[in-house]
Amino acid sequence: MAAFNKKFSNLEKKVDVLLETLAEAVALLKLQITKEPDLSPNAMNFPIESTMELEHFNSIITPELTDFYINKLRNLMGTSTSMACSLKNVLDEKLILEYNLDGTSGKSSLKNCKEFYNVLESAVKMKIPNEPAEKVIRKAIHNSKNSHFQMSSREKKLKALATLENN
After folding, report:
1. Residue 103 contacts by C-beta under 8 Å, 6 or more apart in sequence?
2. Any idea where the DUF4806 domain is (predicted)?
């Protein structure tokens, strides 16, 4: 009987160790699942290229996915010192030209895409914590547009020079 009790006690200890190990594994799995949710049906390609894609992205951002997308956008924006360049990793340049924050001057409002804007604003706050995020985003949009129009102007001048030289 003593041998049986000893074996039973050893088995209990082993089961307890297994239970602890299993609990740790389950906790790690849960943590991994919350970090990387399964987004395959709603997976987004970046940069976002159209208003339709932006509206779709805005509609799939749920409270459960907010942190995931904040980190995703923060990673997309990278370590570039130019916020305008960073923004182009999230939104295509052509889409940036169609939007501004408030929807003035015949442009669409980025703030109307509330979920997307909140995620973008949070990602910008993490990237540049000592500046107001709205001001940083507004300036990045302005700089992107300015860069686009300067490039466009240079191309027109080069084409004009090329046609003059050919004649």
Report:
1. 109, 111, 112
2. 43-120
Q: How many domains does the chain have?
A: 2
Helix spans in 36-82 (H): 51-60, 66-77
Q: What is the DSSP letter of 91?
A: B
Distance CA 63, CA 69 (A): 10
Residue 124: domain span: 40-166
Q: How confident is the model at residue 105 (pLDDT cuts 50, 70, 90)?
A: very high
Residue 93 shares a structural domain with residue 149:
yes
| CA separation for the pair 150, 158 (Å, rounded) | 12
